[in-house]
Amino acid sequence: MQELAYMNGTIMPIDEAKVPIEDRGYNFGDAVYEYIASYQGKLVYLEEHLDRLDRSMTALSFPKMSRDMIRRAILELFEQSGIQRAGIYLQISRGVAPRDHAYPDDPQPQFMMTVRPVHEKPPEFRHNGATAITLTDLRWGRCDIKTVQLLANAMAKQQALEAGVFDAIFVSESGIVREATSSNVIIANDGRLITHPLTEQILPGITRQVILDICAERDLPAEERFFDVDTLYAADEVFLTGTVTEVLPIVAIDGRTIGDGKVGQMARKLSRALLESVGA
Ligand code: PDD
User: Fold this and answer.
1) Residue whose CA is closest, atom 8 of ligand 1?
2) Residue among 243, 245, 274 whose CB has most ligand 1 atoms within 8 A, to mutate
3) Could you tell me where in the chain the CATH 3.30.470.10 domains are found?
4) For ligand 1, is residue 35 a contact (CB within 6 Å)?
5) Contact residues for 77 (Cβ-Cβ < 8 A; gap 6+)
6) Topology classification of domain 4-117
7) Which one of 61, 67, 131, 167 has the largest count of C-beta atoms within 10 Å of its C-beta?
8) For the chain, where do the domains classified as CATH 3.20.10.10 start and end?
């Protein structure tokens, strides 16, 4: 089992992988990323991640890259690592060019990855639930594109930790609940799920979609619509979803208890269904 990096076709130890100082990802945040996890030696939702990567690259007018080449590179890095429960971080920048806001004429995208064991969330969060604060969403207007411009997310996560809670939930100036720093937010009321619709203000999370699909298969009512912070506080259940987060119940927000303060039925049921679907 070995942690490894991949740089434009070459696999190497992580500390040998270096990024040129004029990489546009480094200078402008002009790069997109994906984080893909494996369970028991099998990468899950790989095609969904490749679809989203393609959408991000298209949205930023990156040159087209072969999906087969990207898939083969991911699988090779994963296999060479021998890590059963791996997290592959994949980043593609527009390329290396003298610093200039305008895109270079002939961009050569730089493709890098790392593979390491997944940094699991503490099990007590799954059993007893975690806590969060709400913060005004300071991010840019295209959060649907998975770019590496994550400073507002990093600041919000840090603010949450300093407040003694697990995460921050972004709320718009007008009080609409969007998503958390690296997860989507779903609430449950009377057995009915509600989550923010797919707009430019949130990431189209793969786990969010898996949960919506599970609901559709099981005839559990789920709506994609806007809801405000008072609806969040008054929900029976709140949970976060994401590749690393999986289904993570939130039992207190801004110091207010959600529901009865315990992990709810819906979170338990959907968490089990998700773990079954990924073969955990
Ligand atoms: N984050 N929303 C945001 C802002 C995210 O960064 C993520 C994922 C999600 C959940 O998406 P998915 O279910 O496709 O993982 C929602 C990744 C894991 C990260 O930044 O490492």
Assistant:
1) 182
2) 243
3) 4-117
4) yes
5) 4, 6, 11, 88, 113, 115
6) D-amino Acid Aminotransferase; Chain A, domain 1 (3.30.470)
7) 167
8) 123-277
Average pLDDT, the chain: 97
The reply to whether ligand 1 has any atom less than 6 angstroms from the CB of 91 is: no
Mutate to test the pocket of ligand 1, among 88, 178, 184 (most ligand atoms within 8 A of CB): 184
DSSP 101: S
Alpha carbon of 6 to ligand 1 centroid (Å): 21
Give, for 191, the enclosing helix (H) or strand (E): none
User: Is CATH 3.20.20.150 the classification given to domain 123-277?
Assistant: no
Predicted confidence (pLDDT) per residue in 203-262, tens digit: 999 999 999 999 999 999 999 999 999 999 999 999 999 999 999 999 999 999 999 999
Taking CA atoms, 92 is separated from 57, 59, 62, 66, 230, in Å, by 9, 13, 9, 13, 39
CA of 146, closest atom in ligand 1: 6
Amino acid 230 reads D
Catalytic pick from 18, 42, 146, 262? 146
Q: Report how far Cα 91 is from the mean position of its chain's Cα atoms.
A: 13
